[in-house]
Amino acid sequence: MSDLLESALNPQSVAVIGASENIHKIGGRPIYYMRKHGFGGRIYPINPSREEVQGLKSYASLAALPEAPDLAMVIVGGDKAVDAVSQCAARGVKSVVVVASGFGETGEEGRAVQRAMVDTARAAGMRLYGPNTQGLANFGTGALAGFSTMFVEVPPADGPVGIVSQSGGMSAMAYGLLRGRGLGVRHVHATGNEADITVSDLAWAVAHDPDVKLLLLYLENIANPELLARTAAYARERDLPIVAVKAGRSESGQKAASSHTGSLANEDRAVDAFFRHHGIWRVRDPHAQALAAEAYLKGWRPEGRRLVIISNSGASCVMGADASEELGLPLAELSPATRADVASRLPGFATAVNPIDITAALLSNSGLFGDVLPAVAQDPAADLFFINIPVAGAGYDVEAFARDTAAFERSTGKPVVVAAWQDSVAAPFKAQGIPTYANENDALGTLAQLASHTALMRKAIVPWPAAGAAPALPPGTGRFLNEAQSLAVLAAAGVPVVAHRLCRSAKEAADALAAVGAPAVVKACSGDVPHKSEHGLVALNVGTAAEAAALFDRQWAELAALGAAQEGVIVAAMRRGQHEFMVGARIDPVFGPVVLVGDGGKYVEALQDVAVLVPPFAAADVTAALRTLRIAPLLEGVRGDPPLDIDALAAVVVAVGQLIVGAGGAIASIDVNPVLVAARGQGAVVLDALVERGD
Amino acid sequence: MSDLLESALNPQSVAVIGASENIHKIGGRPIYYMRKHGFGGRIYPINPSREEVQGLKSYASLAALPEAPDLAMVIVGGDKAVDAVSQCAARGVKSVVVVASGFGETGEEGRAVQRAMVDTARAAGMRLYGPNTQGLANFGTGALAGFSTMFVEVPPADGPVGIVSQSGGMSAMAYGLLRGRGLGVRHVHATGNEADITVSDLAWAVAHDPDVKLLLLYLENIANPELLARTAAYARERDLPIVAVKAGRSESGQKAASSHTGSLANEDRAVDAFFRHHGIWRVRDPHAQALAAEAYLKGWRPEGRRLVIISNSGASCVMGADASEELGLPLAELSPATRADVASRLPGFATAVNPIDITAALLSNSGLFGDVLPAVAQDPAADLFFINIPVAGAGYDVEAFARDTAAFERSTGKPVVVAAWQDSVAAPFKAQGIPTYANENDALGTLAQLASHTALMRKAIVPWPAAGAAPALPPGTGRFLNEAQSLAVLAAAGVPVVAHRLCRSAKEAADALAAVGAPAVVKACSGDVPHKSEHGLVALNVGTAAEAAALFDRQWAELAALGAAQEGVIVAAMRRGQHEFMVGARIDPVFGPVVLVGDGGKYVEALQDVAVLVPPFAAADVTAALRTLRIAPLLEGVRGDPPLDIDALAAVVVAVGQLIVGAGGAIASIDVNPVLVAARGQGAVVLDALVERGD
Questions:
Q1: Long-range own/partner contacts, residues B456-461 (CB < 8 A, 24 or more apart)
Q2: Do the domains at B148-290 and B579-693 have one common CATH topology?
Q3: Predicted ipTM?
Q4: What is the pTM of this model?
Q5: Of A199, A505, B131, B281, whose Cβ has the fewest other Cβ atoms within 10 Å?
Q6: Do B153 and A394 touch (CB under 8 A)?
Q7: Do B394 and A322 touch (CB under 8 A)?
Q8: Chain A CA closest to residue B347
């Protein structure tokens, strides 16, 4: 952790500018909290109208302090806040937490004031948190430069979870929910408007706290993706799971976000791809973050997804089987030996298949759970265990079930979760440290998340070979390369493109037809007309040289009529293939290069059957992405079709990705549509492409 | 309610065969429960080895009773249960509840025993509940012919909810969850193996209890869809919402269901369509049933879906906006007057757009909620209200928020729900009778469900005109009509079909080409070869009479080579259209005729972009179904395409539906693929069809 972050998360001295005697006020709470939670450093209340605040000597100003504090909190608002930041900079404060709101979230004027504060801070080598932040809290040291109500509502306990959030409310909510589940929390930090310090900065710092075993983030925009990516890489290295909420998924959500913290929008599909690439698991809200926390903290990192369900209710077995199919947790196929063993322990009318229905017989024999669990545990087919008890109570020895379950978990180390909505049934399992949920959905969802996230965290990111020289783009200043130029750039990058000729006369067009062979495609070529089919400038099934020559004349004239540069007419072979795909790449303003692959053809935009990849990625990542498409069933061949050559398609996607990355900004976007993919072993070929110059 | 059902739900006398002194045993509980919950009728314990059971005179046998009881419970198992049913039948018992398990759920042998019991019962005019059932419970009368543990765990209270379930466990779970939310429950009935009485029978009976305002069902199969449909119609008439769980959605779930209650599978897509058609809302589990119960019982039946979100957290506003978009609850566009009014009541830095962020200023001004709510309430743009308080506690006057919210609800009658996960924050709202949820998802999900379900319940089912004569099918015994016959059946039903001729010679084929015009399609026609393209028996783009004649000869010979009846060769016009759809109809073994419409072409089965409709339906239902397809964006025309003639397509779908219904079983299925749909106003035409004969 850098010294500057150290000064904020582990300060030796804290000044509170706008300190209050009232422990329920924002200016009173940090002092109250630090003293209550054992902060060992020096606290300096600053309030010119008091001698003492909460029993501590109060100072008239920063200048009056005996030392430059590591950290200062600015509680005062408006112009006074701006002044206070200047005074902090002048006094040598290392970190300033600006609680005051009314800056960047209110509009351009506020953003300008905010920027000026940051300039002041940076000039003095001071880091700024906020403005519009609830502050920082480190329960490891008692450094509580924050004012959340939640620390009064739910008593803190130091523990292995770190929370970093743009929103104070969401950090408090995650904190409260975790504490409500009996989990300890070390860090609760909010960044507010992120004028200087972002979630990524604090995530980096918290990830380096060796006691932190789970890192939860809440984001409304991703201000510093590069640092977040490095944090994620470091976290994967030390097996620290990161679970993030990224709000503003929708258009209206992004609009609301910008009036909340003044943040800019991220394209949500790219956010998903970015998180997936870096092994960060995305969930919808702090409830979901808290739900899975216990299972992560157990240290479970399942190798597989094969599920065993055990219940005393047949209906729960049915619903569990439904949920397992939805969640992609296949029911483990127990071996004949296991099934015989289980059946021998169950009363005659119970089944010994998975889901295992131990039936209401549990009421008369409380040892059934303890009998059945070890029998199943020996089976190597089982990765994950789910116990569902929708009804129990008087007459059931729930304490024994819980003990047996815990013993099973200890001896196998395999993940086992319980669903029990009755508090009396859940309590003994919770007391035994078994993650226990009110409903099946949450329980199985947690197992699925754990299995998927573990696989994601363990997937290596293999760097691409360093790019050689940037691709040679033809001279010119137009935004778009014409089709011939675009195809040439792809061909130079090793992408197979359709046989074609760029013709400058009717004669050349007629000759070209003979060269590429009939039937052919004839299409006008001009950087000024990137979407030529919309202008009727594409002719298919051209069979004769005469037709080709006539089409040349017509299209050449049409370019002139459109006022477009007459750069030529392309005569290309008409190729047959089995399926048309699209491959795209663009420089996302936030994430940099991102690559798209999906169902191709005319309706790409309308149907949006597309997957997003973040470089660097391997061919295997492309084929995995293809399997998430709605058209995935076609990949293996249906209705007598042979399987598609997805390896050839994947090679195109990788090459397009390396091309845009290697161009280092010289290419803004690449749009390849269609890529015609033939049967396995028969390759893929690009029929049309459009390259957009970067700045 | 029929007398027989009356005898079960409201018996005057109950015998318990296998009565026990021990109130924790299955044979002890019903007696204990009835006496505890005020059953006013006569209870007859039957236990030959005791003089008294729980202080009541015990009888040695049914024969020894002073009267024939209305209802008898059979607790004894195995052969004794079978004997007991016979004795009940002999004694004149009206209803028998067979608790014993080990019958239909164990296999064919058990099913045979079960059928024999039902035969015995029916011969005597007695109705049978179960076997393998937890029994019946009516808290309105204290008639508790059931043994659920849950009635001990969670004290009963009579109320406006009825629960009917195949599974005893799920009925108990729904009961417990509702009681946990403070709601009263009148009926808790389980049907087990449904050898005689099904969920539909009991749903019909409970729907006729005028005190029941919400009916919850749990099903693993739908044994009696016709009665369930009538129940749903009656329920809609009296504004009684039905919310159902249908488990066994997946293949593995259906497998588990069959070993649970021996039930048969329903195709899940058809289940969805059936529920939607009849205005029954489907949810995934009893948790979801309980979640929305309060909102239904409020009597809220929202006319629209426009949502207002109010929160003291900006992040919650962002996440709420995201969720509203996902759930199709558009944020209400408040009028300028409302916005000005709201803004005037909020501190300067808060926004007055929807979502309304009242910010942490709530801490200093507890009246903000009460100020803002009436200002918004006047706006006619708002249908639904959501208040999200992710953080509150010391310093917040939550009691005042709750009072203000309740006053708002009383004065407007508009649905308002709250999300507050802190018990201390939720409690005052709950005390005011406001539906309050732990998280935003549940709260907004409830509003969305309420709005959607209300619209579904109010949608009229317009009956189709009575079918005239059944469609004339050509004579023959083959399973499939040939294509020419199939097209003729459709044409006779008023469906536009492509111009075509069935040819029996090369000469006829050549003539037909001239008649239908080139280019044409030439395809072999034989009821023995329903999937002709798989045999290469379809030729496209046939341009000349000579080609047509040659193709006739080739295909005619090929039919012979395949050993298929040589019924002819079709020469049809090649038609152009904008998009190919599929329309299908079949007799579902459970639900009867169902109709499918979806994206057409070669990959219909692989891509499954299909909607299911249950007759009778209107053209508007078809267009609504089309809008649920993945290809829906294409309907209105994209990339320069004109909008499609979906009215013409809808007319085809209605005609196909009326055709299969009118055939009264003579047609097993109709497969129309493709229906070529042109631009709006240009119609739709069937290019190929396959009609399958019924039995």
A1: B456/B276, B456/B279, B456/B281, B457/B236, B457/B239, B457/B241, B457/B279, B457/B301, B458/B236, B458/B301, B459/B279, B461/B233, B461/B277, B461/B278, B461/B616
A2: no
A3: 0.93
A4: 0.95
A5: A505
A6: yes
A7: no
A8: A102
